[in-house]
Amino acid sequence: MPAKSANTRRTPSRRLLTTGLLAGVAVGAWAMSRAKPPASAAAEPREMIDWEQARSMAIAMNRGSALTAPERARLSDEYRALVARCIPIVENYTGDSLPATLERTFAFDRVDWINANIEGFRQLFTPLEALNPLTGGAPATAAAAVMSGLNQKVVSAELGVMLGYLGRRVLGQYDLALLGKEPVGAGKLYFGEPNIRMVEQQLGLPTADFRMWLALHETTHAFEFEAHPWVREHFNAMLERYFALLREDAERLRQAGVKGFSIFIDRARDSARGEGGWLEALMNPEQRALFAEMQATMCMVEGYSNHVMNAVGRGLLPTYASIARKFELRQAQKSPAEQIFARLTGLSVKMEQYRLGEAFINRIAEERGHGFAKRIWEGPEFLPTMEEIRNPERWLARIDARDAARAIRLAEPDRIGPAAE
Predict the structure, then answer these.
(1) For position 374, what pLDDT does the model report?
(2) Model pTM?
(3) Which of 14, 171, 238, 263 has its CA 20 to 30 A from that of 403?
(4) CB neighbours of 61 closer than 8 A, spacing ≥ 6?
(5) What is the dihedral of CA 227, 127, 282, 16, to 10 degrees?
(6) Is residue 8 one of the residues assigned to a domain?
(7) Using an 8 Å Cβ cutoff, are 227 and 96 in contact?
(8) CA distances from 378 to 254, 317, 382, 383, 393 (A)
(9) What is the distance between the alpha carbons of residues 243 and 250, in angstroms, rounded to a whole number?
(10) What is the predicted pLDDT for the residue at 267?
(11) For residue 257, what are the domain limits?
(12) Is residue 198 helix, strand or coil?
């Protein structure tokens, strides 16, 4: 039986946090007025988010524990050595190979992590600037200028608080640029040294084993994306579809004027599933379905990584079981403030879905072996839906039916015809 979940970071991916946050950005679009603005209402072009405000707020929550330049260089070398040890171990278990060695491994303090992720968020928001009436094609009315400024302050503050909170918790991160021009092999590994030290001290963990434990998890993420380039392309395509849907939705709400606000109210009222945060409730059904598809993909990214870490870690680290047990206990003992924050942002639901992803992989591996579970990386059509993640037997039935149909096509090419392939 695989070891109990041992997540190295109980925080959703930046990609999912972004898509949830973007749903709230559209709230401001409904209030755009068609009235001709007075000459004094002309506004300077302004981005949807005040990135410096978000950065300053996040950094203010994380002052102290900075690394000196010599410390950063020494620790980066140490983490690179750990990753180098992990690569052949993960290769042996998964049967995959990295196209290049992972030299982009860095030790970060909390401010380093915030700065790196600010840039990542900024890149993801770039396609949505057309929604901003002061930078896009919408008329720059007085009402639009006011709403844009208000919306900017609200979203900037929300992003700043979220980054500040995560900056104090993230231990490791595999960061693969999305919607950019970088090659697939441009992934970077970040290790949050102050947070790692804090957890080691709080839980009394052995430094060498705990850091190897973390490195295994993040190195596996590199294998998932870099050994299977279609994963990045697939996620990029989903993000682009989401942005297109959001732009269309915002334009419809803009044209609806004041009535657009009632549309959001109706969505929140109709969202009776009791899942997700309030931002997700503001999505229309098509956006929500696509968001669920992205969640399912990230469930597999996190769940498979945990499965691999558990499978190889027990034989590699003598203290593995103790580390996993202590870490799980820590995750279960969140403060009331943390629990409230998680509920308000929907993070608690996303964390639970990642645990479902690990349970899915474990279930498939137990029943059919790791080789069969690894088939999720054969292509987008092999990824489970959220419904299949909750009910693994449905995914097994679908893949078995797919295999059977392919076997028939291969066995009877003359009757079926080449077009069937």
Answers:
(1) 97
(2) 0.79
(3) 238
(4) 161, 164, 165, 167, 168
(5) 20
(6) no
(7) yes
(8) 42, 30, 6, 8, 19
(9) 10
(10) 59
(11) 14-390
(12) helix
Q: Is residue 183 part of a domain?
A: yes
Neighbours of 34 (CB within 10 A): 12
Mean per-residue pLDDT, 292-310 = 92
> In this structure, is residue 184 part of a structural domain?
yes
pLDDT in tens, 11-38: 445 555 555 555 444 444 333 333 334 3
User: Diameter of the chain by CA atoms?
Assistant: 75
The model's confidence at residue 347, banded by pLDDT at 50, 70 and 90, is low
359 domain-assigned: yes
CA distance 310 to 370: 12
Other CB atoms within 10 Å distance of the CB of residue 363: 18
For residues 89, 91, 95, 96, the Cα torsion angle rounded to the nearest 10 degrees is 160
Amino acid at 381: E
> Distance between CA atoms of 168 and 203, rounded to whole angstroms?
16
Closest CA to 114 of 168, 159, 163, 178: 163
| Cα–Cα distance for residue pair 175/108, rounded to 1 Å | 13
Q: At what angle do helices 230-256 and 207-226 cross, to 10 degrees?
A: 80
CB 170 within 8 A of CB 192: yes
Separation in Å, CA 72 to CA 10, 22, 63, 191: 25, 34, 17, 11
Total domains present in the chain = 1
Residue found by looking up tokens 């593995």 in the block:
320
